[in-house]
Structure formats: C-alpha cells, structure tokens
Amino acid sequence: MKSLWQKFDRWFLRGQKLSKVLVVLIAVWLFLATSLVGLSLNTSWRLEELGMAINEAGSLRKRVFYMVLVTKTPGAEQQFEQEQRQFEEILTHLHDLHETGFVNGRRHQQLLDQVVKIEEQLQDFLGDRNAYLNGRLSDAAFLAEAREFTAVIDRLVLLIEQDNTHNIQLLRWLQVLVLLMAIFSAIVSLLLLHHLVIAPLLRLNQGIGQIGKGRFDTRLQVGTANEFGKVAQGFNLMAAKLNEVYDTLENRVAEQTQALVKRNQDLAVLYAMTSLFQEQHELSVLVQVFMHKMKVFSGADACVVQLKNRHSQRLELAGSDGLTEEQVDRFRDYRCDGGRCAQMLQSVPVVETESLAIFDERNRFCQIRQVLPFCLTFAVKSVDDEIGMLHLFAKVPFALSAENQRLISTVCSQFGIAIESMRLNELDKQMAILEERNLMAQGLHDSIAQSLSFLNIQVQVLEKALGEHKKQQAAQTLEFINEGIQQCYDDVRELLSNFRVRLVTEGLISSLQGVMKRFEQQTDIAVDWSVEGDVYEVEPEVQLQIVFIVQEALSNVRKHAHANAVEVRLAYMADRLNLKIEDDGVGFAEDTLLQKEQQGHVGIHIMKERSAKINGKLKISARVGGGACVELMVPRQYIHTQE
Asked: d(Cα 504, Cα 595) in Å, to the nearest integer?
C-alpha cells in the first residue's frame, strides 16, 4: 500500500501543491457529477415528453370510436368536426416531436412514418364515414374500418412506449452510476484525505510529541513535495537546530554567563566611578583613585593623567601611578602623544635601558620607549571640550577589547565632567567670597572707616589743644573722641552681628524678628512689627538678601535718623512680597538723596545691589511730616520654586 501511494505521488501528484491537487480533484468530481445529473435530468425530461405523447396517441383511439358514435348520432355534425380538428392537432403535435427525445433515431423515423399512415388512414376513415352516411356502407363494415384505424394507432403507441421503455432503462443506469460515483468518490476522498492530510498530521503530531520528550534526533519522512512535505522539511530543520542548540547549550550558557559577568563588572566599574565622582574629594585624591581603578581595570603597568591649565591651556601632570620619581620628573614637562608610540617604535632602534626615554617637542614625540613600550591614550573630556589625557602604559600589548576601551572612554568623560564641576564649584565659592568681601569692605568703609577718620581728626585737634594749653577745648575734644569710639564700637558690634546672621529653620519671619530684637537692644527704639497676608515659603537666598536689606535700613536709622519709633510691615501678596520700613526721624530732602546716590553712597548702593540679586525693586523716599521710608518689592515668581 505504501509503494502504491508512492507511485501515486510520483505519477499523479508529481510534487504538486496540496491546494492545487484538491482543486483539480474537486473540479473533476464536480464535472462528472454534473454530467451524470445532467444526463439524468435530460432522460427524465424525455420521459415526461414521451409520456405525454403516449397519452395523446392513446387518446386517438378513443376519439376514433367517439367519432363513430357521433356519426351514428343524428344532428351531431358539429361535434364530429370539433373532434376531427382535435384529432388532426394531436397528429400535428406527434409529427413535431424532436428527434432528440428518442433514444433510437430510427424509431423516430418509424414514428413519423406511422403518423403519415394514420393521416392517410384518417382520410380513408372520413371516406368510409361519408359512405356510411349515404347508406353505401353497413354498420358492421363501418365499425370494422374503425377497428382497423385503431390498430394503426396502436402501432404508433407501441413505438412511443418502446422508446420510453429504453429511456426508463437509461435513467436507471444513470442513477446507478450516480450512486456508484458517490460511493467511489467517498472512498477516494477518505483515502486521499488520509494520505494527504490525516497521515501527515499524525506524523507531525508524533514528531512534536517526540520533541516534547527531549528526543531532538527525531526526523519526519518527507514523502511528498506538497505543503505537508515542506512542513516536514521545516520540522526536520527545526529538530536539527534544536539538537544543535541542545548539544551546545552548556557552552552557550557559559558564554552568556561570562558575558553577563563581564557586563556586571563593567556596571560595577561605572557605578564605582560614578559614586567616586559624586563624592566630595580634593582634586589630588580624585586623580589618584581614578588612576588606580583604571590601572587595575586595564591591566596596565603604569598610568599618567595630564590636565590642561585653565590659564595657559598647557597640559600639566596631575598624577601618576607605577612610575618612579625620576620618570615622573622627566615626564612632567612633556606631552605624551599615545598615538605616535607604535610609529616611533618602528622607526627608532631599541636600546636596552631602564630609564624612561622621553622625546622633547623638537622630535614631536612623547612616549615610553623601552621600559613601557605599549601605550593607550584616552581623552578626558568635559562635554565637548578636551581638558586632559589619560595614558596607560604596559610592558606587553594590551588585551583590552573594543568594548572595554569604550568603557574607559566613558569613564574618562565622567572624570572630565567631575573635574570641570569641581572647578566650577571652586569658582562659585571664590566669587561668593569676593562678593561678601566687597560687601564687608563697603560696610567697613561706610561705618568704621568714617568713624576712624573722624577720630584721627579729633586726635589731631586734641594734640593741638594740648600744645596750646587749651584745657576746655581739649576736654571737649576728648568728649568727641569718646563718642566716636563708642560709635565705632557700636558699628563693630553691628557688623559682627550682621556677619553672624543665619537663617533659622522657621523662615523669613523669625530671621527678621531676630534682627529687630538686636536693633531694639542696641538703640532702645521700639519697633512696630506686623505681617499681612497668607504666609508662603521663601527661598533661602531671597531670605538672606531681605534680612541684609533690613539690617542696612535699620543701621541707617540708628546712625542718621534720630528716630523715636520704627514701623516694619511685611505683606505676603498673591503676586509679590512687600517689605516697608518707616521711621519718624529727621528725614531728608529729595535732592539730598539724589546727590548721595550720584556720589555712590555705600549704604544705599549695598541695599540696591542686594535687591537686584533677587530681582526686586527698592524705593527710598522721605515721609510727609518727617522720617524716611524704605520699600522693597519682590515678584512672587522669584521668591520660591515650590508652593
């Protein structure tokens, strides 16, 4: 059976696609079935037509006897004519029967000949009728003629019945063929379905079961070249691949494990270096730790880091690891170009020496020639700006992969960013120190320097008065000196208090209350303090500048206003923060304030500088009826970053 199917596949299917084979078989079956059904229908239609012809031919006999009866009935001539006309119409219809309605064409011709005889016999019958009506023919003779006429009609009916019998037999055979075809097609369909679909699916299912049990050497027999044959080939390829993967699974797992370990090591290095760069270290410590880790990671024997001087843009030695002091001293003033090492080694003969050979700028090379002949150089970058170089030296060629080299480059970039950040932080600190020193100098100039200048003048006046023995003037001068010293002492205490200002955790209100409390203790002047609006957070920098402005304003009140009371109003508004400081002192003229601003009065200048730092607006004006008013307005968008 198996060889039979193989021959069937080879000679009939010929490697055709399953879909194409099924379409062809269905088309052939449909053609045969349609043909048999069509023949059956055609035969049935002929049977129907011949059955009608038999009925019509049989009715002719009845009509003959009916015409005989009508002939013997007086006054029935009209009925006879009607019967004769219908008789002739039936003959015409029988004469027009198509030849295709007959199984045998000869029988159709016999039918036509018999119809002609019936027509001739009809004419003879009509003649006998006339003879009978005229009395020339007896009843017995006329009836005998009618019987002879019906005998001719019987032969016509017999011809039609014979052909009808043949059609019935043909119809039965066609029905038997349809039945046999249905049985045969069902059997063939089951066999083909089993061979083309069910059997391949069973084999595929069995193969999948074997693969599921871990038998990766399972293979399916490729018996056909159709879709299931291709599926079997694909299954075999998959099984072979699985078998190969299973055989090399341990090696693959080991490779992936090694790759994972390598990735974890790289991540550990990046994490360690990132943690190092985020910590606060001095530059020398940061460089030493960085070099040590890069030396261990790369397997180098020595390591050198050069950084650019911010002023001269020249590379300077920032640190070394693995080199002797002599080698470091010789290396210090040269720029090592790692990209030229290999070229230099090829062009310069090797000389045995234990010292570090470095070429100066005239040779345009800077390298380790004998002791550590192999070098890798990486740029230390801060964003896009190169700020230094990392040199790794080794006695043997480096075994660093391209991935490890990219990792070192990444770490060098992080190192450069950390250094640049450290330098920027140092610059910020220096700027802050210089700014505060400038403010301190301004404060000293506006207070202590003026007091000391006044004391110097009074000392000169005192010396002159003592030299001229003017006791009264000397006593008055001493009183002025005492007042000046006290004023200078108060200024020093106030400056020290200002320098020690710290923002408390409670916020701006508590800081201002502390400033006003010190002012009251120094001057015995009452401060009327009030807060308006819904209090919200203020950033520390804004708080600090506001506190300093209030200190400076109260200091001016103490020195110049001669006031008895001070009002401080702090208003938290929806769009801004308002601060107003008013006193009831002597006040000033508007032109006097303008003149002091033009002359660069230190106190006014300090307050305006601090106001500008927080994007505020400062207004100094004289009060109606005496006194002065200092008003500060800071937009809310600059006050805080979070509600």
From this structure: 38
Cα–Cα distance measured from residue 541 to residue 624, given in angstroms and rounded to the nearest whole number: 34
305 forms bridges with which residues in the sheet?
Answer: 319, 390
Determine what percent of the chain is predicted with pLDDT higher than 90.
5
Residue 79: strand, helix, or coil: helix
Query: How many angstroms separate the CA atoms of 462 and 476, rounded?
Result: 9
Instruction: Report residue 426 as tokens.
Output: 């140092």
Would you say the C-alpha torsion 449, 454, 459, 460 has a positive or negative sign? positive
Instruction: Return the H-helix or E-strand segment holding 102.
Output: none
Q: Answer yes or no: is pLDDT of 350 > 60.
A: no
Residue 307 near residue 390 (C-beta atoms within 8 A): no
pTM of this structure: 0.40
* Higher-pLDDT residue of 595, 643: 595
Q: What are phi and psi of 321, to 5 degrees?
A: -150, 120
Question: What pairs with residue 320 in β-bridges?
Answer: 304
Return the number of other C-beta atoms located less than 10 Å from residue 529's C-beta. Answer: 15
CA distances from residue 339 to 290, 356, 366, 376, 391 in whole angstroms, order as listed: 22, 18, 10, 8, 10
CA separation for the pair 515, 492 (Å, rounded): 16
**Could you write out the DSSP letters of every residue in 360-424?**
-TTTT-----SSS-EEEEEEEEETTEEEEEEEEEESS-----HHHHHHHHHHHHHHHHHHHHHHH
- CA–CA separation, 250 and 174 (whole Å): 71
The token pair that represents 437 in the structure block: 């020193």
Query: Tell me: the pLDDT tens digits for 591-634?
Result: 666 666 655 555 677 788 888 888 999 998 887 778 889 999 99
d(CA 112, CA 125): 20
pLDDT in tens, 422-465: 777 777 777 767 766 666 666 565 556 656 766 777 787 788 88
**53 within 8 A of 97, measured Cβ to Cβ:** yes
pLDDT over threshold 80, residue 78: yes
Question: Which strands make up the sheet holding 302-308, listed edge to edge?
Answer: 315-321, 302-308, 385-394, 374-382
**Spatial separation of the C-alpha atoms in residues 226 and 192, rounded to whole Å:** 13
Q: Are 26 and 168 in contact (CB under 8 A)?
A: no
**What are the residues whose beta carbons fall under 8 Å from the beta carbon of 399, sequence distance 6 or more?**
299
**CB neighbour list of residue 469: distance below 8 Å, 6 or more residues apart:** none
Q: Give me the long-range contacts of 165-172 (CB less than 8 A, separation at least 24).
A: 166/103, 166/104, 167/43, 167/46, 167/47, 167/50, 167/103, 168/47, 170/43, 170/103, 171/40, 171/43, 171/44, 171/47
User: SS3 of 563, please?
Assistant: coil
Residue 29 has which token pair?
Answer: 């079956």
- All domains of the chain in start order, with CATH: 16-183 (1.20.120.1730), 281-424 (3.30.450.40), 501-638 (3.30.565.10)
DSSP per-residue codes, 488-503: HHHHHHHHHHHHT---
